[in-house]
Design goal:
Distance between the termini of chain B: 41 Å
Strand content of chain A: under 5%
GO cellular component, one term (chain A): high-affinity iron permease complex
Strand content of chain B: 15-25%
Number of strands of chain B: 12
Order of helices and strands of chain A: HHEHHHHHHEHEHH
CATH superfamily of the largest domain in chain B: M75 peptidase, HXXE motif
Protein name (chain A): High-affinity iron transporter
Helix content of chain A: over 70%
Oligomer: heterodimer
Membrane topology (chain A): Multi-pass membrane protein
CATH topology of the largest domain in chain B: A middle domain of Talin 1
Structural class of chain B: alpha+beta
Largest interface: A-B, 57 and 49 residues
CATH class of the largest domain in chain B: Mainly Alpha
Number of helices of chain B: 12
Number of domains of chain A: 1
Strand order of the largest sheet of chain A: 2-3
GO molecular function, one term (chain A): ferrous iron transmembrane transporter activity
Order of helices and strands of chain B: HEEEEEEEEEEHHHHHHHHHEEHH
Family (chain A): Belongs to the oxidase-dependent Fe transporter (OFeT) (TC 9.A.10.1) family.
Helix content of chain B: 40-55%
């Protein structure tokens, strides 16, 4: 029961974190009218994942292992691009919240509304198929006669609910922060999350044999931090931390987090630059 | 980032990855392709240590008290052929894999740590071909369809060219016939391997005097060639009746070829072998100057063979990209190199005569052909992988 619960929690956290921050941002910057788009993106991702997962589980055809890994891996890497764009977009808008600039920011938000939907979709959908396949397998187990067991399904759903509840608490917590702190913390946090998502995507592609180096391990702390433990689950669910990390994953993580974090901190703390929202900035180049 | 860019980025990724691979959910043998695996806290019990090749289903049940994972590993014990994760206690999850015959390892990882509990596993040859995945099928259909269209198109041009050629020749307009000879034969040379697959047509249409079997009646292109470019001594020109007969026969054969290619279908291995076959034609006939003994227009034929080989290869390329990108690059590079050498000998609308080539130039052509032959011979095996 507990292990099912932890899987639900892990997958749930991976999906909700980015969405929570995006929602908090929109609420904080008085753009509640954009929220429906985020929910639409989330709903689309959930429905597509569940439908796709059901078709593969109960239908006549499955998906090859390589294809499953390639989907998860590719979507993860694309998600990193979008999340990075979102971090800098938020940071850029943060500086232009004085009244006269608000209009310009709103126009930017309108122009980016589809990107926001895509961010929400990818954040939830990249792991969606894997989770859906697990949920359906658990459902099958609950529905069959022999060894019928509802524990996996109940556990996983409870875990998902917990993830949503934690997300809500985080949302409430971030709302209490003042604006500049909010951007600083959520942005830095999201960069760590995105670095983890990048590693995760690379690991999937390594498992599928699309990228090399699956067995060149940088470190293995699975003896200390067991992946089945509560702490292992939380680390995996938030930062995509994997107790056994390959060199390729580790290098990619560092190569992403270090420069992006540096640029981000320089921007948020002013960096001596005058960054009007309308001025084209390096952040857009990063996202493109 | 605007809407177009977002969709541009997200659309193809999602669409592309969903097309990567499908597999059938039902095992190959009646019930014998389905195995049960019981993963306990310390053990990994597989119901059999072998299965016939094709679709194999492992139903993995976790009877331990921690989450487990199940892997099917390749013979090196490292490469993952298939895996299924997140098998929680009491849960059964299925791993469906398409496997060719060979040695494998099964492995359970209770608690998702360590190297897991491995055991050797053999896949015997069931004689069944692995079904092409939906994606491969689509690529194959496209490739063979494109090639069929190409062959039809070239045969159309060959037929209308042959009609003009035959008309001029029968009318005794030899200058016109000589001008039409090589440009028309290019269409034939482009699809030569297809024409050769209809065994009866090739000897009738394209036999060279030197290759005639004892008692074989000489007909076709090269008989007319000799009559248009007669040797200085010891040759009697054909009579009008003989000319008509050989010309009518050639046109009739071309019409037969034309009608047969309307409904002809092709396979990827046929295309791969055909591409290589065309290049062998170059190596054995055109580079040596034996094909066009009298007219010396071998380089036109050379270009035709290379064109046909290249089209077959280009049509196979999307499949090759997936299966062996290194080979694809190698073949493409060598095609370009060969064409460069051949282009040196262009003259007006056509080419230099074979007799105008120096020994060094012939050697250079021959080397470029051989360099391409080597990787091209591997294409068929690669697309069937």
């Amino acid at each position: 029961m507990l292990s099912n619960y932890l899987i639900g929690l892990r997958e749930g956290l991976e999906a909700t974190l980015v969405v929570v921050i995006l929602v908090a941002y929109l609420v904080k910057s008085d753009r509640r009218h954009l929220l429906p788009r985020i929910w639409a993106g989330v709903a689309a991702a959930v429905l597509v994942s569940l439908a796709f997962g059901a078709a593969l589980t109960f239908g006549p055809r499955g998906l090859t292992f390589e294809a499953q890994e390639a989907i998860g891996g590719t979507l993860s890497i694309v998600a990193v691009g979008f999340v990075t764009w979102m971090i800098f977009w938020m940071a850029r808008s943060a500086r232009g919240l004085s009244a006269e600039l608000k209009g310009a920011v709103d126009r930017a938000a309108d122009a980016s509304r589809y990107s926001m939907v895509v961010v929400a979709m990818l954040a939830v959908g990249r792991e969606g198929l894997e989770t859906a396949l697990f949920i359906w397998a658990a459902t099958q187990a609950a529905a069959t006669e022999n060894g019928s067991t509802t524990a996996p399904l109940t556990g996983a759903l409870l875990g998902l609910l917990t993830a949503v509840a934690l997300g809500y608490l985080m949302y409430k917590g971030t709302l209490k922060l003042n604006l500049s702190k909010f951007f600083m913390w959520t942005g830095a946090f999201l960069i760590l999350v995105a670095g983890g998502v990048l590693s995760y995507g690379i690991h999937d592609l390594q498992e599928a044999g699309i990228l090399p180096g699956l067995h060149a391990v940088a470190f293995d702390v699975s003896g200390t931090i067991r992946p089945t433990s509560f702490i292992g689950t939380l680390l995996k669910g938030t930062f995509n931390f994997s107790p056994v990390t390959t060199w390729f994953e580790a290098i990619a993580w560092v190569a992403y987090v270090v420069p992006v974090m540096t640029i981000f901190l320089l921007k948020v703390t002013g960096g001596g630059k005058n960054a009007a929202p309308s001025a084209p900035s390096t952040s857009l180049k990063v996202a493109a | 980032m605007n809407r177009r860019l977002s969709l541009l980025l997200a659309g193809p990724v999602i669409a592309g990855t969903t097309l990567v691979g499908c597999t059938s959910n039902s095992p190959s043998g009646a019930g014998n392709g389905e195995l049960t695996v019981t993963s306990t806290a310390t053990e990994c019990q597989v119901s059999a240590n072998s299965a016939p090749s094709g679709t194999v289903v492992f139903k993995v049940k976790n009877t331990g008290n921690e989450v487990t994972e199940f892997y099917l590993l390749a013979s090196d014990g490292l490469r993952i052929v298939g895996e299924i994760e997140n098998i929680t206690p009491q849960l059964t999850r299925d791993l469906v894999v398409q496997v060719p015959p060979g040695k494998y390892y099964t492995s359970c990882k209770p608690g998702m740590v360590g190297n897991g509990v491995q055991a050797a596993f053999t896949v015997t040859d069931s004689g069944k071909k692995l079904e092409a995945t939906g994606d491969d099928k689509a690529l194959i259909t496209t490739a063979t369809g494109l090639y069929a269209s190409y062959v039809k198109d070239q045969t159309d041009k060959l037929l209308s060219g042959t009609e003009s050629f035959v008309k001029a020749y029968k009318a005794g307009d030899f200058d016109k016939a000589r001008a039409l000879y090589a440009p028309t034969r290019i269409y034939w040379e482009r699809i030569e391997t297809v024409a050769e697959s209809f065994g009866d047509l090739d000897p009738s249409m394209d036999a060279r005097e030197a290759d005639l079997e004892p008692g074989q009646k000489w007909t076709g292109w090269h008989k007319i060639e000799k009559d248009l470019w007669p040797p200085k001594t010891g040759y009697t020109a054909l009579t009008a009746a003989e000319r008509n007969s050989v010309a009518d026969q050639l046109l009739k054969d071309t019409r037969t070829l034309h009608s047969r290619t309307r409904t002809q279908t092709y396979t990827v291995d046929g295309m791969g072998n055909g591409s290589k076959g065309l290049l062998d034609e170059v190596a054995t006939g055109k580079v040596t100057g034996e094909e066009e003994t009298w007219s010396h227009t071998d380089l036109w034929d050379f270009q035709g063979n290379v064109d046909g080989a290249k089209v077959a290869f280009e049509n196979l390329r999307p499949i090759l990209t997936k299966k062996d990108p290194a080979l694809e690059t190698s073949v493409a590079t060598k095609f370009t190199a060969l064409q460069k050498v051949l282009d040196k000998h262009r003259k007006g609308d056509g080419f230099k005569l074979y007799t105008e080539l120096s020994k060094t130039e012939i050697k250079e052509l021959s080397d470029a052909v051989n360099a391409l032959s080597e990787p091209l011979s591997k294409v068929t095996a690669a697309v069937l992988k």
